[in-house]
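quick one: protoporphyrin IX containing FE bound model?
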Amino acid sequence: FRFERKKMDNLNLFMLIVLSCIFFKLVINSVAKRNLPPGPYRLPIIGNLLQLGKKPHESLTHLGKVHGPLMSLKLGSLTTVVISSPAIAKEVLQKHDQSFSSRTVLDAITIHDDHKYSMIWLPASPQWRALRKLTNSHIFSTQKLDSNQNSRQQKLDELVSYVGRNASSGSAVDIGQVAFTTVLNLMSNSLFSIDLADYNSNSGSTFKNTIRAIMWEAGKPNVSDYFPVLRFLDLQGIRRRTGKYIRILDDIFNQIIDQKLLVLQSREGNSSMSGGDMLDVILDPCHENGIQLQRHEINALLKDFFVAGTDTSSSTVEWAMAELLHNPFKMTKAQQEISTIIGKDRLIKERDIIRLPYLQAIVKETLRLHPPAPFLVPHKAVVDVKMHNFLVPKDAQILVNVSAMGRDPAIWTDPISFNPERFLDSKVDYRGQDFELIPFGSGRRSCPGLPLAHRMVHLIVGLLIQSFDWKLENGMRPEDLSMEEELGFTLTKATGLRAIPTNRL
Ligand code: HEM
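yep, here:
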């Protein structure tokens, strides 16, 4: 009997401890909830999902004006904190860089466990650090980019020839499509010296269509992302379809890697491949990078580059051309700069970018008004962080609203106008130090592809306006050109930009 009683006492004590823990957890949660940054009223279960509307970047900009630059929302069951001022963006990306260095992983890309190897989705772990080091020091370093600029120059000559043929026949060009094909080939030639796309839509289009399809799927709002408990159902089929496209990319990259390994074997005995393309660097066991990646890791890295680098770069080109067609005086001014500094006897080269301040200002102004990633790639809080007397809880998704900051009248005079001149006498740059202009992010998770994107975007826009004059199709007047935006995986032009080129050179 005494033994039974002691057992009961122990059980009671255990129950008391469990109940106390639950009680304290509830108290802590409710205190945490009270301390969340201000935000709009949330409906039960769906939270603020309905307030996102068709253009979440505009809706969140509007809500930020009402509730402040540090705002919290509930998107389904996902606590989300939206940052809309350069000062708070600096705190998040610089002062608390490490605490906000993780990612909220999209359900779609978890299908083949890709997120476990991908630089974009890995938390800031030693594995991620090794990938960043390899990328920054050996793949997109100035030295490496300089060493393979000739292969890109050849692709740019092909762009000019293709547009030139349209100019001769007087037919319109879909500038977004042409930019996308050019960016794919610039990247594939820098990475592994192969063309992956063709200007004629029927040939060589598997790769191009697959990349587009992945972005299309990744850009759709997905119930599984807002309600992770429903992930196993994949209600919209997004994960299943994305998985199919990822397999197609894997097959293409596996073939490319196999071919490259054969070439490397045939060259065995020769020392380092530092003069080769970027895949040579990744595969070469003798290379000073000292990082040996497995096949699936190389595959993931290549996918990261193409998914993160193509639409972002090509839509920047499309927006820059749209703004120049919308503002023909600015187009003429840019053409005059190129004629004066480069002349008419040769085409612009990468080394010329630094000598063309107005072209540089055009690219900055385009990225200010139309950042391809209007919320960066969502960050995630690794720990609870106290900011301005509010609590940003662990696991909260962090959206840095770059788009709101780019159009904030408190930061920019006449913010809606396309006015590259504002950057001519200014030192503001997009490399992550000036928080009012951070289209590539800032801090440890900022874009590693910036050096390549910088070269590609300037060169494509520069060559299109150096080599051709442009007018809109069907006699459309510049002021009637629609500048409507659409937010999918990136922020693109809602309607494709079509214009007719005529030869200038
Ligand atoms: C990440 C913008 C081109 C590869 C990012 C981020 C942004 C961005 C905003 C996230 C930063 C953050 O979350 O703090 C852009 C823009 C581009 C561009 C505006 C073109 C105009 C490229 C190119 C490549 C690339 C050409 C590669 C070839 C990546 C990768 C990441 C990334 C791998 C993930 C980095 C990480 O999570 O550690 N980019 N990007 N991007 N970008 Fe870019």
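The pocket of protoporphyrin IX containing FE is lined by residues 119-120, 132, 187, 304-305, 308-309, 312-313, 316, 372-373, 376-377, 379, 439-441, 445-449, 452-453, 457 (CB under 6 Å).
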